[in-house]
Amino acid sequence: MLRKDAIRNIFRVWMSYIEATLAIAVLVAVDYFLVSGSVAFKGWPVNPLIFPVIFISSNYGMSASIFSGLLASLYYLYCVTLEDFLLIGKPNLAFDDKVVVFGFFLTSFILGHIHSSYLEKISDFDKENDELKEKFNNLQIHNDVIEKANKKLEKQIVNRFSSINRLYGIAGYLDSLDIKTLYSGAIEVVKQFFQAEKICLFRLVKDDSGGRIFQLKAATGYEKNDYSRLEIIAGKSAMIERALMDRKVITFRDGYEEILQNESFFRTLLVAPLFESSSGINTGIMVISGLPVLMVTATNIRAFAMIADWTARSIEKAERFEELRNREMDDEIAGIYSFQYFIARIQEEMSRSARHDLPLSIILLEILEFDKMTPAGKKDLSAIIGAVLMFVTRSVDIPARYSSESIFSLILPVTDEKGADVLVKKLLNNIVSYEFKPFFDDRELKVKVISHEFHSRKNQINISITESDVQKYLECAERKLRMG
After folding, report:
1. What angle do CA 191, 165, 419 make, to 5 degrees?
2. Which end of the chain, N or C, is more open, meaning fewer C-beta atoms within 10 Å of its C-beta?
3. pLDDT (tens digit per residue) in 434-470
4. Distance between CA atoms of residues 469 and 18, nearest Å
């Protein structure tokens, strides 16, 4: 590129010299053949030899300008001094002739200087323009990088929430208060989410000496007669011991040497501890020993921690509310969960929301003038409201009675207030569509429905949700219901 520019500049300079020579030559021919009575246009008000000087100076710059002025001056001097030189042997230059020659040189210098300054400014402008172009290109590249990073981040966020939503979709296996069902359900959740082939769930139980040993409660990919062997291997695993001590998920990358040493029968790839939310005591471990390596991503590791947390809390809930399942879990009239079950689940969901930074909302629905209805009207209306709640909700949502029989509630995991407001409108439309009239007269049914999102404190992620936190959250929702 530089070589081409240099060749172009040389060509331009030589062309300017040639043009100056041709222009002066044309005027010489005109002077010689067409003009009589004067030489070199001497005595003319404006000497035509100045025009090539002006043209060349205005178009080519200083060097070409001086060259054209020199040619015009030499021709003029030659013509006006030749006769004197031949007669007396030396040139005799009059004052007017000196003025003309000086005018040629002065014009060529001034115009050449102006044109050169103009070219310098254009060159500076071109350089500045090139710099701005380069900066713009750099900004464009930077912007492209930012856009790619932004798209990648958006994709990660979408993947994260799609993974979480998918996880919630299969988490129904953990929605049981039967311990054995929970064990097999936890294995099934991990199997479906990770496409894992070998999974084990161990509980830590006391032995005869008062110590704690691993007891295999559920597994997939192994035979029943392998359970004793698996329990012995788990008790010796450094990765499992580290997961229990660190209280976090440990991957095969953290225990690479152990993976190499273990036989393929039980190669620990992912380990997640189970511990009680109230006391923090380790209660068990979940182990994946056969899955596609590409599934071991940061998002899936986080999902495994969530599954382990849900499993531990589901087990804890099942053990704590075994009697509740038989006597108080269901509201027989409305066909939904009881208020006692609602209280247990809202604390659990609030803890999960705070720990994993997930959205959580509840909906409260109050039937106005419920106490003025007939007993039969109350019963029928409760059944209708219960049916509507069951119809419009997802499998992971939790419909329940609230503190009084005129108020119904709905727990919405992984749902912010905007999503809850959409469901509020859907609820109202479905209730209105029944055109139910529970009063003696023709008064229409009136209900109030509000949604309220749970916002955990930033420093609450590692703190358990207490009954006081639940009470404050529900009081805020009740206040909102009264104001609505």
Report:
1. 160
2. N
3. 777 777 677 778 889 999 999 876 544 455 788 888 9
4. 95
